[in-house]
Amino acid sequence: MKTIDSLGDLAGKKVLVRSDLNVPLDGTTITDDGRVRASVPTIQKLLDAGAAVIVTAHLGRPKGEPDAKYSLAPAAARLAELLGRPVTLAEDLVGDSAKAVVAALEPGQVAMLENVRFDARETSKVDEEREALAAELAELADAFVSDGFGVVHRKQASVYDIAKKLPAAAGTLVEKEVVSLGKAVTDPARPYAVVLGGSKVSDKLGVIANLLTKADRLLIGGGMVFTFLAAKGYEVGSSLLESDQIDTVKGYLATAEESGVEIVLPTDIVAADKFAADADALVVAADAIPADRMGLDIGPDSAALFASKLADAKTIVWNGPMGVFEMEAFAAGTKAVAQAMIDSEGFSVVGGGDSAAAVRLLGFDEAGFGHISTGGGASLELLEGKVLPGLAVLED
Fold first, then answer.
1. 349 near 180, Cβ under 8 Å?
2. Pick the catalytic residue: 353, 375, 376, 390?
3. What percent of the chain has pLDDT over 70?
4. In which pathway is this protein known to take part (predicted)?
5. Residue 76 confidence (pLDDT) above 80
6. Which residues, 6+ apart, have CB-to-CB distance to 104 below 8 Å?
7. 52-56 and 29-30 as β-strands: parallel, antiparallel, unpaired?
8. Which of 350, 354, 352, 367 has the alpha carbon at shortest distance from 323?
């Protein structure tokens, strides 16, 4: 994969950087700036090399047209604070404002284009439409650096097509993500344990199938665990359940047994009478969830069990929380997994998305983990063994 060094001397050149600035907002206030902070090293490296940097990114899911609530203005302001220099935000993507802002850009300065998804061509399924937008973006710059790991699994204009229009390379974040996740995907030190949570089994079908041929242990929690419990014939009450996946899960359980992969399920569950922070909650056995209650976290015995299964692991990958960690009453399971990863002497990877958010929300020191991914979907697809278009296009 081509890196920034392969682009040669960048002094005086304008470099278009695809960052991942898709941050959660409360109005115009960023509630978790992890992705903005993760974008800084690449931008700083380019500035140090004497380049002028043009940042492009998306925020949210605007419907292919400008929408003020999805403006990148909060991200531009936070990036300026982190870089310690102004970041000029254009009023559009490839229009008059963008062209004027870029034309005025000097080496060592930073500009940001407005939300790339304000243009419907960015996510178009029609190759020619994406290529047309990529061509307009390419007119603004001399080189392209792909640093938005959270979107490299997407065949989009600012991720894939642009890399064919300009000299292109991976940024330091994408490089770090590929190396770190590669340790877990290609040649993991063993025992290799994977913790999977989150709401739905269907979101992780490919990952589970692939890991059954690679991992030594799969620890299952979160909303998806109730489909596993149902597959074992247990009552799951009003818990989240994908009935149409029960047969698939039964197949996974059988395959794991045949191949010697240990699937670790919770022994107890925190069951509540409603989905609310003030719900009445009690700990019940995993095979005895009352019919009128829903499981919202793994129980204390399960948390201890999961920690013990991670204690001797040499490689740990975690994707998906163990419960509704945003509510204090249902955060203990997720906290236990995070702490066990920190306590482990193995190489640990937090697979982006809600897991990364949980680490920050629950106050853990990010330095305690081997790597915290910025891309939930992208990291899942790498674990699944898929070819990611935004990475493939950067190969030598």
1. yes
2. 353
3. 100
4. Carbohydrate degradation; glycolysis; pyruvate from D-glyceraldehyde 3-phosphate: step 2/5
5. yes
6. none
7. unpaired
8. 354
